[in-house]
Prior knowledge:
Elements: E1 2-15, E2 20-33, E3 39-46, H1 57-63, H2 67-73, H3 77-88, E4 91-95, H4 99-111, E5 122-125, H5 126-133, H6 145-151, H7 164-178, H8 181-185, E6 188-190, H9 193-200, E7 204-205, E8 231-232, E9 237-239, E10 242-248, E11 255-265, E12 268-277
Parallel strand pairs: 1-4, 4-5
Antiparallel strand pairs: 1-2, 2-3, 5-6, 7-11, 8-10, 9-10, 10-11, 11-12
Helix pairs in contact: 6-7
The structure holds zinc ion.
The site of zinc ion has 7 residues, from loops.
Amino acid sequence: xDIVILDLEWNGSYSKKVHHxxxxxxxxxxxxxxxxxxxxxxxxxxxxxEIGKKLSSHIASLTHIxxxxxxxKGESFKTATExxxxxxxxxxxxxxxxxxxxxxxDNYNYYTGDSEIPFLKYYCNLQEYCEYELGAHNPAxxxxxxxxxxxLNIKSDEQDLxxxxxxxxxxxxxxxxxxxxxxxxxxxxxxDDEFYNKVTFKNKQITDINNPLxxxxxxxxxCDDCQIRAEQLTHFKxxxxxxxxxxxxxxxxxxxxxxxxxxLKFDGITIKKKTFLNExxxxxxx
Length: 286
Ligand SMILES: [Zn+2]
C-alpha cells in the first residue's frame, strides 16, 4: 500500500447557516510515497472558501496565501476532495496530529453532509509515531512539526513554512529519519467506528470526587522520605480542577498537600499525583 502524507491549511469563518465558526479548508498539500518512502506523486490545490469572503490577516501572514489568488484559482471543496480522493485512494493517510482529520470531518459535514471521510480507509497519526520513536511522548504537550524537525536537525526554510505542500514534505523528512517498516505498521489504524469515536473523543478533567469513574483506592499518598503511606488529615477539595487534601507521614510526622489530577481519556482515566510541602503546622494549645 502507498502512503499519502496530507497537510491542510484552513481559515476560520463564522457560518450563519450553522451558527458557529467553521475552519474552512483552503489548501490541500500531499505527497505520495511507496513503502520504502520513495516519492511517487505530489498534490497541491487551493480551495476557495464559501463561507469566508476573505482570508483572516493571521492566516494570510502565516501561510502567505494570496487572497485574490485563492478566490480566483481555488477549486470548490467538492472538486478538490474528488481530485484528492482519486490521488489518495487505496493509500494509508498520514497527518501530523489529528486536527487535520477533525477539520476534514467538519468540512465534509458542512459541504456534503458526510459524517466520515470517504477517502480515509487506513490512518496513521505521524505526530504520535514520531513522539514515541523519539521518546518525546508527553500527554500534556504535543510535539509540533517544526520542533520535531529541529530535534532531528532537519533544515527548513522559514519562508516556506505553513503551506500545505511544504509541511507535507517536512513531515515526510521527519518520517524518513525515524522510519522502521515493522514498527510503523503498529501505528496504522483502520478507519472504523472505533477510530472515529477515538478521534472525536474530548478529554476532560474529572472535578467531582463522587463521579463513579473515580477509583477511590487511588486517593492516597506515600511519604517521599519514608516510603510509607501517609494519613489523610482533611477531605479532598477541588482546586484548579484538581483534588487537594492535607496528609501527614505517621513516621517522620511531615505534613504535606497531596494533589491528584484525574483526566478522562478515550482509553480510560489518567491519574497524576504531586506533593507540596506545607508551612510547618502552627502550635496551638488545643
Ligand atoms: Zn515520612
